[in-house]
Each structure stands twice: as structure tokens, then as C-alpha cells.
Amino acid sequence: MTLRDLYKKHHWQTAGPTFYQLHLLFDKHAEEQNELVDVLAERVQSLGGIAVGDPRHAAELTTIPRPPDGAEEVGVMIDRTLRAHETIITKVRKGIVTFAFLTGLLLIPAARVDRPGTAVALIINGFAKEVMNQLPMEFAVEAQKLLGVSLEGSVG
Fold first, then answer.
1. For 45-92, how does the pLDDT look when each residue is reduced to its tens digit (9 = 90+)?
2. Which domain holds residue 24?
3. In terms of domains, do 8 and 49 share one?
């Protein structure tokens, strides 16, 4: 909700020679965020949780900094939006790693997950480790290249 509202604020307050193009772009991204919010809320509800349905409550829960009142320069708006996406991506990545660690899919400490793609590779490793450990070394090496996962303990 917070990211959607940030896009909508920028949609309303963009100005200058690129007004029309940015006005449409920010609106498009706001609508895409709105669709994502709906899908996530439906998933939370279907799993027995309670989705945050009030923008005020979402504002209390978010770690995305609140933008200042009034209009900002276009470059500042874009930078603020990019930083908001980075915040979300970082939290999702940490959530994936935490989930994988707690469910036994992650076999190394979460502190070692510091590069994009590492969390996904570790989850794949968690699913495939038993099978991979039975492979002859030459196949394990090829699988490692293909999947980008650690195959410590492979036969051979």
C-alpha cells in the first residue's frame, strides 16, 4: 500500500517538461502496485491470516520513510521510489532466507546470504542436496555450474 501511495503522490505532483510522460508512468506503476496489494492480501486471507486493509495501519507498519508534504523535484521522486523498492526487496530477501532457515531448507547461516540470487540458490540446494550428494563428482560439478549451488559432500 505504501509503495502504491508513493507512486500516486508522485503521479499527482510531478511537474516540468516531462510532466505528461511521468504522470502516466507513475499512474501505471501505482495501478500495478494496487494489483499486487490485492493479490498479496487475498493470499494472506486464504492462508488464514489477516491482511492489512487500512492505509493508516500500513503506514504504521512500513519501514519505507514517509515522503515530505508537498512536491519534490522529479529526480528526488524517482530516487525516493527506487529506495522504497530496494527496502522491499531487502525485506523480502531476508524473509525468504529466514523461512528457508526455519524450515530446514537453508543449510548455512543466514549471515552468509549477502548477494542477489544467493537465497534462491540456497533454497534449491536445500531441496536438492540429498539427490546431489549421490551424484558422481563429474555430474555434481556440472550441476553446480547449472544451478549455481554448493554441492559439498557429493560422491566422488
1. 888 888 888 888 888 888 898 899 988 999 999 999 999 998 888 888
2. 2-90
3. yes
pLDDT class of 140 with cuts at 50, 70, 90: low
Number of Cβ atoms within 10 Å of the Cβ of 132: 22
CATH number of the domain bearing residue 50: 1.20.1260.10
Specify the number of domains making up the chain: 2
Is the pTM higher than 0.90? The answer reads no
Residues in the chain: 156
